[in-house]
Amino acid sequence: MLNLILPLYSWNNGAIIMIGVFSLVIIALLAAVFFMMNNNEKKD
In angstroms, rounded to a whole number, what is the distance separating the alpha carbons of residues 44 and 14? Predict the structure, then answer.
């Protein structure tokens, strides 16, 4: 069990990749929110 869980939290590879993917997802969500907000304001 430990051998399967450990690589997910390895700072050599996994953590850096997961932080990068996570930051890209957050940036994409924020961009989508601002895009929707601007569209709603322009309609009004």
Answer: 45
Contact 9, 15 (CB under 8 A): yes
Tell me what pLDDT residue 31 has. 95
Residue 37 in tokens:
């907000």
Residue 23, both tokens:
């930051």
Task: Report the pLDDT value the prediction gives residue 11, as an integer from 0 to 100.
Answer: 60
Question: How far, in Å, CA of 32 to CA of 6, rounded?
Answer: 34
Q: Write down the pTM of the prediction.
A: 0.54
- To the nearest whole number, what is the mean pLDDT of the chain? 76
Measured CA to CA, the distance from residue 27 to residue 40 in angstroms comes to 20
